[in-house]
Write a structure and sequence with these properties.
By secondary structure, this protein is α+β, with helices and mostly antiparallel strands. It contains four helices and six strands. It folds into two domains: 111 residues, Ribosomal Protein S5, domain 2, CATH 3.30.230; 40 residues, no CATH class. 44% of the residues lie in helices and 24% in strands. The chain has a four-stranded mixed beta sheet. Strands 5-6 form a two-stranded antiparallel sheet. The chain is elongated, with a radius of gyration of 25 Å. It starts with a strand and ends in a 5-residue tail after the last helix.
Length: 163
């Protein structure tokens, strides 16, 4: 049985939105798209999902808007940055080459820039948790409605036809 649920919660400028989609599957297959700042809450979210959904291929999308924590500017690893600058300068000097725009060159090296994970505030988590619970209520209502329609179709299909 398919299902869909969507909900949002907001406080001031901060808005949390949760969208759930599900299709039939023998087992629970959960895919979560969420901001990195909820990485530490992923296990709690998965447990919440499994308390509402036993099986199905479930896609969940969580978004937060209006929060300073959602601005995921990358951070620079200063130790790695300095190391690469020194090594490039030394190699350039040994080879008699100009260093050019060394900052841009070093920032392109993998792992010098890393995505910022941020952290959730209590307000962001409370709003997201509220939106999760409301989305699951909508999800369950959708499943019940679809289940009733399916049951009605089956009853009609099993009735003997009169000729």
């Amino acid at each position: 049985m398919t299902a869909y649920g969507r909900a949002s919660a907001h406080s001031g400028q901060i808005k949390a939105e949760v969208e759930l989609r599900s299709v039939n599957s023998k087992f629970l297959d959960l895919r979560i798209k969420m901001p990195l700042l909820f990485k530490d809450k992923e296990m709690e979210i998965r447990q919440l999902v499994s308390s509402y959904v036993e099986r199905g291929k479930v896609e969940m999308t969580i978004t937060i808007t209006g929060s300073e924590n959602t601005i995921e500017a990358p951070s620079i690893d200063p130790v790695l940055f300095r190391k690469y600058v020194r090594e490039i300068q030394a190699l350039a000097a040994d080879c008699g080459l100009p260093t050019g725009d060394i900052i841009t060159q070093v920032l392109r090296i993998p792992q010098v820039l890393t995505p910022s994970e941020g952290s959730t505030s209590d307000v962001e988590w409370q709003l997201t948790h509220q939106a999760l619970l409301e989305a699951f209520q909508a999800f369950i209502r959708f499943r019940k409605t679809e289940g009733a329609a399916l049951a009605s179709d089956l009853v009609c299909a099993l009735k003997p036809s009169r000729h």
